[in-house]
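Our consortium's second objective concerns turning raw sequence data into structural hypotheses that experimental partners can test. To show how far this objective has progressed, the report includes one record in full. It was chosen at random from the queue rather than selected for favorable results. The single chain below, 316 residues long, was entered without modification.
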Amino acid sequence: MVNIFDVICIGAALVDIIAQVVRHPFDDDEVFVSDLTILSGGAAANTAYVCAKIGLSTAFIGKLGENGTFSEKIINDFKEVSVDTRLIKYSREYSTGSAYVALNQKGERRIYAYSGAANYLSKKDISEKELKNTKIIFLSSLRNLEPLQIAAEIGKSNNIPVILNPGMLIVDQGFTKIKKLLEKIDILILSQREYHTLLNIKENDLNEELIIKHSKKLFFLGIRVIVVTLGEKGSFFITKNGNGLIPSLELDKIVDTTGAGDAFSAGFMYGLVQSMILDVDHLRTYLKIGNYLAGNCIQKIGARNGIPNSIQLEIF
């Protein structure tokens, strides 16, 4: 492998089946679906797609079913933005995963995810020969921790920054179980809910003071930067040397929050690739770019439809 990538994203690639509804159903209830859309998805795959669309040299590692229309759609959508698909692994036994999303008129979601082949990515599928050819390793929502752990160890041994945006599939496994993975990463990006759950925070309102207080436990593991996305408030970063809250974009309407965190992560990495510096001033810029991409993402249906191209990002 002679390519030097800006980022290699590792995790799940699924197909999202999005049902638009007036409201979410109650128990033993039925609602009318006004529109049904089929889109490529999966947190790591979304981030890879956005990274490539905004101009980063990007590869994806994950596992798909060997055959089927879902696999073909994922590959074709990757190729539209030049994500390198040569590192993708295939399963003969399991089909490509899918997520069933109910989306109401307020942009609120209910998601039922079938990981399928994605969850059977194994440590044998993770190669140091492949991973050492990148500037950043990005890990995201995958219930099977073993391949992520191996990838993080490879990053650590090769002085490649490792970023984890875990998602609830990882966070719900509990701090103790994922501690070994956390010890191998450099940058941790979490949503409010993920931060609350991971650190078992009792207070309902997550604010900057609480994040500063509880993050000591994470810094003790060796994590260098912690980023918490706070929805309408924006995003907050903290390091041992400082912290900052970066406001979100002012938007008239939120259509669909699917993929906002994935877009944010891609924007953060876009900034990081330019300098590879993690001081306070640079981190403020990385979060501004992340907020910009997330803000654009949530103004369209799906995780990828609102993403600006590289020229639009350069103008921003």
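The partners drew two points from this record. The CA atoms of residues 229 and 235 lie 4 Å apart. The domain at 5-13+41-96+116-315 is CATH 3.40.1190.20 (UDP-N-acetylmuramoyl-L-alanine:D-glutamate ligase). Both points have been shared with the crystallography group to help prioritize constructs.
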